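Internal ticket - ligand job 355, L-tryptophanamide:
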Amino acid sequence: YQWNSNLCANHGGQARRSVTDLKKPLIHARITDMSQKRVLSGIQPTSDSFHLGNYLGAVKQWVELQDSHDTFYCIVDLHALTIETDPTLLRQRTLASAAQLLALGISPDKATLFIQSQVPQHNQLGWIMECLAGFGEASRMTQFKDKSAKVGSDSARVGLFTYPMLQAADILLYQANLVPVGEDQRQHIELTRDLAGRFNARYGDTFTLPEAYILKEGAKINDIQEPTAKMSKSSGSVAGVIEIMDSPDANLKKIKSAVTDAGREVKFDPIEKPGISNLLTIHSSLSGISISQIESDFVGKGYGDFKAAVADVVVEYLRPIRERAQELLLDEKHLLSILHSGSEKARTVASATLD
Ligand code: ATP
Ligand code: LTN
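stdout (structure tokens):
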């Protein structure tokens, strides 16, 4: 990891509290700028490309919040190790994730963008969180149950089980007030609140209790081939996943062959028409046109016309983003310098909390 050592170069220089400081209540380490609420969120570098679910469920809100909040956004490469990972690929995907986040609108002038493994305090607090969490409560995490069931208990890593406690550390180190995520992460944020409350009650008021920031529209984008399942980076097949880095042609084809439902009417009804409803959500979230307006625009027209319109909206929305990400990837030095500064700032905040 050549860039690993670069990013870690400043380890020894992290902000430390003096002995007299240590007598002051830890609460002073909380929010540096009291006028702005703190936001933290993370995304796994588990694929060459983010998908529309990642964008509409999370990153779109990250971009909006950076104007009004003190925002920390983290590429969670340690979490990505919970599934079988080739090291070269993980390195590439970590950089590709940074390029995509910038192309999607994250600004290094407004937000702190960093890599989780470059801030070792995450692992340190992660252990404390593991020792506070009950085996039973960790066993009830649905993401763990789903992902471990997929690979079987012999292949599932222990890290998949302890994943939510590391996520709690990610959030609590930054004293985050808000955590913008998709619906699938609600349970992990609840656990984080429980662990923070337990720590505070046992050892004194230390952590801010975070709230999940989950929008109604876009919080769960489904696979367009299997519209009752979540669109996911690490799902077996990419046929139903609309990837940001896919060519416009590939996305056009995917959307035109999206699974639809019985009947002909373009109508939002997630129970009876999960395929059409999912496409309506995607169209509306990207175009800004309300779902009811889109429904009336397609009265008397068929699913074919509707899918062509969705494809057009998606392809034109993603085209400049993909181009910008490709451009950013050509200048690795620039990307690394952004991540370097971000990790340095993150270490300062994280070590103040940990101390
Ligand atoms: P993986 O399949 O590797 O678990 P993922 O596609 O679920 O990955 P993550 O990196 O785990 O993506 O999640 C990043 C953010 O995107 C999280 O806030 C998560 O809630 C959100 N997200 C992921 N998939 C969707 C989806 N289908 N709809 C809405 N939000 C989503
Ligand atoms: N578990 C999250 C990714 C994640 C995260 C975080 C999200 C890791 N650490 C901290 C919000 C805050 C997921 O999306 N699967």
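Auto-summary: The longest strand covers residues 38-43. Confidence is low (pLDDT under 50) at residues 1-32.
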